[in-house]
Fold Alcohol dehydrogenase GroES domain protein.
Amino acid sequence: MYMRAAVLEEHAEPLSIEEVDAPEPAPNGAVVDVEACGVCRSDWHGWQGDWGWLGLETQPGQILGHEPAGRVIAVGDDVEQVSEGDHVAVPFNLGDGVCPQCQRGHSNTCENVMPLGFIEEAQGAFAEQLHVPVADHNLVKLPDGVSSVDMAGLGCRFMTSFHALAHRADIGAGDWVAIHGCGGVGLSAVHIADALGGNVVAVDLKDEKLEKAEELGAVETVNAEDVENVPGEVTSITDGGAGIAMDALGIETTSQNSVMSLGTRGQHIQVGLTTQDEQGMITLPSDAMVMSEIEFIGSLGMPPTRYDEIFRMVATGKLEPEAVVSETIGLEDVSDKLESMTDFETVGIPVIDNF
Ligand SMILES: [Zn+2]
Ligand SMILES: [Zn+2]
């Protein structure tokens, strides 16, 4: 059996749309018919060949795509919790389910983590079908009545922001939350921080993204193009600095701006991974961080066991993941979409729904 897939042949060159072998389930795996998959800045990094410093430089033949939702169409003999026909999302941080991290509920930091769409053993979802290893552990069943397009961000950006804000940070009622970078993960963070009771200041270079941030609950916005000193502006808006700030992009400027926009005992959450410019190394104002007891917190994806928290808030209308989905596209449009990310032209989460 064959399926259509967008295959990486050369970094930063258009993906090749071709027929490839459809996956068969491993004994502990499942095959998902992909109904929707978000196109994320992490795909752009994979397409560029970034993250060699993390051991994640994509190789020719890789299928990218790590924000899928769809239906299970086949399961391996050893799979017990998942059945054909189940409607599922797939968290990009696939775990083995058995290491100490997974056993303690932290499978997003699994000792044998398999980042979906970045390594050969975890081919991604820019394809009609997707194989998910250790399916009992890694598949997240979606509630009734939600659509795959609406839930596509749950595999990466939406859940990443949720974990960062709901589990890693300590948001109190009315806390000022500064979100630096309003791409898909940043806009998700604006919406989630608002739902968790924060007062959100959104920072970006594009008015269009800041307008979207206002729609999603930001009470203040800062266009970094228009002000001389972004941290100073945030500090003035928040009357002394934000309680929580997030770098939702992953470049040195946004990370530093985020740290420096905090007040005393503020928490910086680093969600964005860096680019070729930084290669994972960012200079930080460590003395000022000591003097003000600033925390620097890394946050990666989310363990599959915590999704019920999101679903309860979706059920009551407090969270609307679909509000961040901006458009639907076809598989053949993916390369153009990645290209437009080079200049930060996409707003919200574009989702492939036509394979
Ligand atoms: Zn992503
Ligand atoms: Zn593990």
The first strand starts at residue 2 and ends at 7. The chain has two domains: 2-142+320-352, 160-298.
